[in-house]
Amino acid sequence: MSTPNNYSELQDVIRSRYGELSRRLQQVAAYVLDNTNSVAFDTVAVIAEQADVPPSTLIRFANAFGYSGFNDMKQVFRRHLMEETANYTERAKMFRDLEDQPSPEQPEEILNEFARANVQALQQLAAQTSAEDLNKAVQILADAENIYVIGLRRSFSVATYLTYALRHLNRRAFLIDGLGGMFQEQLELIGPKDVVVAISFSPYARETLALTETASMVGARQIAITDSQVSPLASFSDICFVVKEAQVDAFRSQSASLCLVQSFAVSLAYHDKDHKKDTDDRKTPMSGT
């Protein structure tokens, strides 16, 4: 069993396995699902007392879901709280309060940390993304009548760039942004010959999930860019690209996601060029001998 690496995954797996847990572990499960702040901030002793279980039961609970210990599982709750904190100043303060190790604060230190982390993330993207999936994604985009792209909150810049790039390739690409509260009206435009590119990372935007469900119902093909194979986007997608972004303190980069969608656009440009050449070659009459 793989260890859940974000709160949404952990929440889902706890719920799905709740019935098979012992009574004591069910007590812990109920407590951690209902008291995320306590799990993130309180000590093991306090959490055990509040959940009315021995501290050893917390460790057994964490082990049951693949973690080395309860403190290991606590990190998932801490990251979740930081991700839910939209204000960057508050997020930086929360990271300092939660973490024991010193974090970079000077501009040069922060730049070096992001550069180092992004290099690793980009190398991982290149190593773990299959050529077959890339080729399939490019072909799906090439065959699309219309391409609808959605990415909200921190994914918005990635979605915006992809739409921009596709428009420069003379593709009928549309950014689903819900401007003026028109999400539903934009979703109703999607047809079976269209393609949806959905970009979302934990915590997943509900509007993005609604779009993938709508696209599935009308038979549109889907390309998902997300952070886990068990992301809710993955279940509706024809291809799912799992991107592990670089993270420094509580702040995640977008370099790997941008690299991936830029690769889509450039590959599609070469695909169109080769397709046009093949078409022109077929139209050219052969000279007599």
Automatic annotation (TrEMBL):
PROSITE patterns: HTH_RPIR, SIS. Keywords: DNA-binding, Transcription, Transcription regulation. InterPro entries: Homeodomain-like_sf, HTH_RpiR, RpiR-like, RpiR-like_SIS, SIS_dom, SIS_dom_sf, WH-like_DNA-bd_sf. It comes from Zobellella aerophila. Residues 137-276 form the SIS domain. This is MurR/RpiR family transcriptional regulator. It comes from the Bacteria. CDD domains: SIS_RpiR. Residues 8-84 form the HTH rpiR-type domain. The keyword DNA-binding applies. The keyword DNA damage does not apply.
